[in-house]
Amino acid sequence: MRGYVRAVLVIFAALQLVLGVWLTFVPKSFYDHVPTVDWDPPYAEHAFRDFGAASLGLSVVLIAAVIRFDRFLAMLALLAYVVFSLPHAVFHLGHLHGDEVGWSIVLATFVSLMVLLPLTALAGARRMT
Fold first, then answer.
1. CA distances, 26 to each of 31, 80, 82, 117 (Å)
2. Which residues contact 4 (CB under 8 A, 6 or more apart)?
């Protein structure tokens, strides 16, 4: 279970780091090139940069949990990620587009995994010694 918890931490730390850098430094590129992003409210540079900076902050916590890898820090990082990803998923699941079935399936799967994988890793981290 420790390997699974660490793998989830690494995957989501990398994801948040990449998203954070991309959104913080070239937010319009993210808006222009990621499918489904334009389904949401119009592009707002301030909101995208803030989201990127928050993603960078979350990546720091996840990276620290990977490096130190103790029960408390792993649980804290995973809980912080779930607190971020659950409302994010709820928003996107409520804004799928019927005329874009393929992308709706991809988006629904991705945002669901962003909640489910950290939740299962959180349950595993609770059992770590």
1. 9, 25, 26, 28
2. 120, 121, 124
Using the structure block, give the residue that is written with the tokens 């804290």.
Answer: 76
CA distance 103 to 35: 7
- Per-residue pLDDT tens digits of the chain, which is 129 residues long: 899 999 999 999 999 999 999 999 999 999 999 988 888 878 899 999 999 999 999 999 999 999 999 999 999 999 999 999 999 999 999 999 878 899 999 999 999 999 999 999 999 999 987
| Reported pTM | 0.90
CA distance to 45, 106, 114, per residue, from 25 (Å)? 10, 26, 23
Let me know: does 60 contact 5? Beta carbons within 8 Å: no
Residues 128 and 1: beta-carbon distance below 8 Å: yes
Tell me the DSSP string of 21-82. HHHHH-HHHHHHHSTTGGGSSPP-HHHHHHHHHHHHHHHHHHHHHHHH--HHHHHHHHHHHH
